[in-house]
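From the shared-data thread, chain only:
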Amino acid sequence: MTTSTADKASTLKSLHEAPEILRVVNVWDAVSAKVVSDLPGTRAIATAGHSIAASFGYADGTMPLDLAIAGAATIAGATDLPVTADLDDGYEDPAETIRLAIAAGIVGANVEDRLRPFDEAVARVAAITAAAQATGVDFQLNARTDAIVRGGDRPIDASIEDAIARGKAFLDNGAALVFVPGAVQRDVVERLVAGLGRGKLSVIGLPGALPAAEYQALGVARISYGPLPQRVALRALRDLATDLYAGGVVPEDTPTLN
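Structure, as tokens:
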């Protein structure tokens, strides 16, 4: 059974608005999408732009738009679940980028502000949401602000205040959630939730981050894992190859994929 793009967008919206935190394990190609999609706990799929770029030989943030859309489209074609894509900063024309993404079956996206000037960053969010609305799809923009990770030497209080100001403006201009990388410590998350509202913050589960259940209790709506799943998979590949070169064999319990 094939679900329409509009229906998938509605499903993703309901997952974002549910009281339970949405856990999305990021994938980078058709087979990783299938492995994760087949798990009973999977409700939606998120792409990892960093991981897709690495698969094509690009550094994070340098992959051309056509490859970003093609990679996301491949993943969307491998699952009937809603797919939300990492689309870097939206590229030169973020409205057109989102139109291309929706045409490829994508129903949500992370788009980062890269700490552009405030008004410019807000205008780009407004352009994305207007373009999405024109398609009739309730596109779920997970608007990312780099206020903390690109904050440099400024005090963390200033970065948190900037993240809240940008996030509130993004929400006012149609974003579904605000993604704040670098929000790891409990007190930072508490302040962000207080400023943005419960159920509006999205975080990344880096090593050392809180468990998803604790983020949920704090009022976080969504947690993703970025390039970490690919890195764990590549570590397993490295360890297997090292063992094979040392005279080992492929483990007998190695699963087969259909």
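The beta strands are 22-24, 26-27, 45-47, 83-86, 108-112, 140-144, 177-179, 201-204, 220-224.
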